[in-house]
Amino acid sequence: MPMLSLSWLGFWPSGASPWLLLLLAGASWLLARVLTWIFAYHDNCFRLRCFSQPSRRSWFWGHLGLVQNNEEGLRLLEDLGHFFLDIHVWWMGPLHPVLRLVHPMYIAPVLKAPASVVPKDMFFYGFLKPWLGDGLLLSGGDKWSRHRHLLTSAFHFDILKPYMKIFNKSAHIMHAKWRHLASQGTTRLDMFEHLSLLTLDSLQKCIFSMDSHCQERSSEYIAAILELSTLVVKRHLQISRHLDFLYYFTSDGRRFRRACKLVHDFTDTVIKERRQALTAQGVDNFLKAKANAKSFDFIDVLLLAKDEKGNKLSDKDIRAEADTFMFEGHDSTASGLSWVLYNLAKHPEYQERCRKEVQELLKGRGTEEIEWDDLALLPFLTMCIKESLRLHPPVTVVSRRCTQDIELPDGRVIPKGNICLISIFGTHHNPIVWPEPEVLSMPLPPPPP
Ligand code: HEM
């Protein structure tokens, strides 16, 4: 009778071959990894059972493709909102769950957790990385905390106040363009296009003190930013282009690379010239010259920023922050403004009240300049802007990855390792938070006497 033998493994009779031993060790390691992964996957599924789930498209696709990144998609989310009022699980394919949070009570513990516990999730933000680098939007952990602390001074009111002149001027340029187009018989405008140029024009002046006249003629730099924004959105929608090495073979990938280089070169040149000026003049003279010219911009803030230990930002850090502000500042604001105009057009009675409020404010001034202190004197317009941002938030979702368990107020726990999608749109349209969320929830006050 044949004996039970390990000779097929090379253990017997002539001793173990090192290659076979290596193979065995490798296979055992792989098996252990697979078993650990299967165990972790099942454990995670078990722990997620306390959260409700909309029915999946299929076991393979999960909820992928169910919600398109368009108006119908948002409408579907609105409908789902009536059934899933706090947190629900969404499957991106058969293996990747994400939790969608649509209630402030459950969002708070996630957003209040330290940045190192809930870093931003690169699955959703990763495509911006080659362009924006480690700026505030994409950085995490200690780097984010340090930069956030340094940059908070950039938003001090004293620094923001002089920007009002820039905003007024950009708005006047846009209005002049509209008047000209109207006088030529144009009756339709793509608002988002015009407002994007307005916000980019303003930002380029606030960040770099540069005027490219991009609202009146084409600018290579501004065109590159618009192209990058479009390409990032497009890439999100094409799963076949998610892998870098495939994407950069496509014509879109090559356009992305070219535009990225152009934008980086522009920012690098400004930083280099400014640093040279700072070194040549010394900090005091540099600041005096800036104060006289009233041209203290965001690059200056970044160049001069230092922490308690005297550490400053490197040129690479400054570029990342400046590029981040150009992107984050233009797209969301242009979208927010477009929706404000849309809502005011849909509700002429509110539009009229806003117009009256501004006219009252400017009465007898002989100027159309809105000043910093005026902003607090436009309560009705402010309410309209806020209500428009509620109904149509420009950023519909932000994502975080939980590196530790997060306990929720009702005792349930978000298991560590999961991605949380904090749905700003879902929260703004949640009927528990806003009774009748689709209705403009703003009473029209009686007109002034
Ligand atoms: C209506 C206008 C705006 C909306 C709706 C908006 C929305 C948002 C949201 C939702 C985030 C959070 C992203 C996340 O945590 O994952 C964010 C972050 C950020 N936004 Fe905006 N934003 C607007 C205007 C601006 C402007 C004008 C600037 C700059 C000029 C700006 C710069 C930034 C930066 C730097 C971050 C990253 C902050 C950090 O993580 O510390 N945003 N914005």
UniProtKB/TrEMBL annotation:
It comes from the Eukaryota. This is Cytochrome P450 4F3-like. It comes from Echinops telfairi.
